[in-house]
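Human: Not sure, check this?
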Amino acid sequence: GINAEYGSAEEEGEVLVLGGQGLAGSATLSALLEAKLSVTVLNDNKNYYDYHELFQGKVESLACLRAAGLSGCFELQNYLAGAPKIRAVVDFTSSSKSLMEEALKLLGPLSPDVYMFVSAAAVYDVAVPLPAPIEEVEVLERPESVLLRETYNDRNIFGNNMLGAEEALRESGLPFVILRCADIVGPRDTTYRWWQYQVWSEHFDIINTGFVVPDSLRNMRFSLTYGGDVAQVILSALQKGVTNRVYNVAMEKPFTLPHYLLEMCKTFNNGENCYADFTEAQETYNLYPSNHQGVLSIERAKEELGFTPPPWDTVLAETVEFYGEARLKFTKERNTVLRKLSDNVVPFLSVGILNEVMTKPDLSQTLDTDGPTGPSGPSSGKPLLRSEL
C-alpha cells in the first residue's frame, strides 16, 4: 500500500543500488543524488560512457562482479559487516531467479524498508495472456499446462528469467516495489540497440540494407520506456513510501517496429530513402521489441506516483543528439556499435566507408557515395516504411 510522505531527504538510511551503469541506472543515480540521498553502488565499476565522470566521489562504490557470485565479493562482505541501515535496495542486475535469491540471501538480513526490482515487460510473454493495454497484475499466473508453460518460456527466455526473479522477491517476504519496463531507450544504453538503428538510419545510403522486419512484427504494437522515467518512478515510490506494488513504466506513445524506424529515418531526412525487408524468417536482426504481448497501461503509476512521461518527440530529439555527440566522445562504445553493425548488417564492401564516416571529426565532409550498390530509396522498388500505427 501507500504510506504518508516518507520524510525528508536527510531521513536516516542509504540507498543501495545493484548495477547503475546503464541508461536507466545512471539516470536513477543522478535522481537519487539530486534528492540528496546517500547512495552506495554495487557493480563491476567499469566505465561505460561517462559513468566515472558523473559519479566517482559522489557515491560509495563496492566493486563486485555479479557473474562471479556476490558471496565471494570482499568489498560487499566488508560493507555487510558494518550492518548499514538500508532505506532501499534498487536492483538492476538480478535478472534470474538464482541471481535474485543470491542477492536476497545476503541483503535480506539488513531488513531494507523496500526492495525495488527493475523488471521487464517481457514477463507478460511467459504468463497467461492479458488484454492490451496490459494492466499490472500483482501475481502473474504461468500457464497450468506444462507444455504451454515450456513453450512460453522457450519463446522468451529473458521474460522467464525475469519472472523467476520477481517470484523469488515476492516469496522472500521483504517489502517490495516491482517496475515492469518495456525496452528502455535514451542516452547511455549499454545494449547499443538504439545507437545501431540511429547509425543505420543516418547512413542508410552507405549501408544500403533494408531494416529487417519479421512479418510477425510488421503490425505488432509495443511500448518503449525512457530511462529517465525509471528514475522518476523509483524516486517517487521511495518518497511516498510505497511497498508491495507493481508498476508498468513506459511512454504514452505506442509503436510498431516500422513506425519507430520511420521516425528515426525522418530525423535524418531519410524518410523517403529508408526501406524495410519484410521476412517470414523468425531468427532475424531486429533489435526491438523484446516483449510481444502488446502495449503497457501506465495509469497506475500516473495515479499513484504522479508519473508524467515526457513526449516522444522530446525523447527522440534528446537521444539522437546524445549519440550524435557520442560518436567522437565515446570511441570505445562507438566501436562496439560499428562492430555489431559490421557483423550483422553492413555489406562487406561498405564497412570501410561507414567506419571512415563515423570516425570523421566533421560529418559535413561526408564522403560522396551512394554506397557500393548504388542509390537506395523509392526508385529501388523496395517496400517503404509506413507511418500508420
User: Anything to note?
Assistant: The two ends are 36 Å apart (CA to CA). The longest strand covers residues 114-120. The CA atoms of residues 26 and 165 lie 22 Å apart.
